[in-house]
Amino acid sequence: MNLSQDMSILSLVANASLVVKCVLGILIAVSFSSWYWIFRKGFAIRKARAATSTFEHQFWTGGDLTALYRSASQDRDDAGPLGRIFESGYREFAKLRGQSSLEPSDIINGARRAMRANFQREIDDLDAHLAFLASVGSVSPYVGLFGTVWGIMNAFRGLGDVGTATLAHVAPGIAEALVATAIGLFAAIPAVVAYNRYAHDIDRLSIRFESFIEEFSNILQRQLR
Length: 225
What we know:
single chain; 8 helices; transmembrane helix; mainly alpha; ExbB/TolQ_transport; cell cycle
């Protein structure tokens, strides 16, 4: 039998032990899932960043806040996360402003609390499934290592059935074991890179949202004077 033919990836996977096949199946399934969330979260964060920039431009060009509020209320999806934060704050401000018994500080604090609550919901939505990517990045190499250890153990155990150990006897088992490690790294590396990148992007968006909340609160406070 030709050793090079016997050492092809598909041949190694087909002839692998049941445990190694299960490990490879789990890693491949996890890899596909992580790539799905990598692309989905990438599109979601890019959309949120673009919508935030658009809303900031509309807000700071000095347009009418009531008209901007109506626009954000009518199409909350296009308004983006910052538009929804603004909409919740301005709605609460308008509602509390009509109550003459409230102090100006109570009105501003109420609007700020409404924006903070919406801010937390938006960040939670952006953070969703990032923990899965972090888990894939940290656990996949160890799952692959388990398959590697099992494959090498089987390779050396098989040497007891032959009189003389040669490369032809040992190489397939070790190569099969290393395939598990390679698949584990293939699943882990993109997940770690994506998690770090997306966590950084979400942190930057979070800073922009918090800055807007404070600046908008100051604008509302000036309107009450």
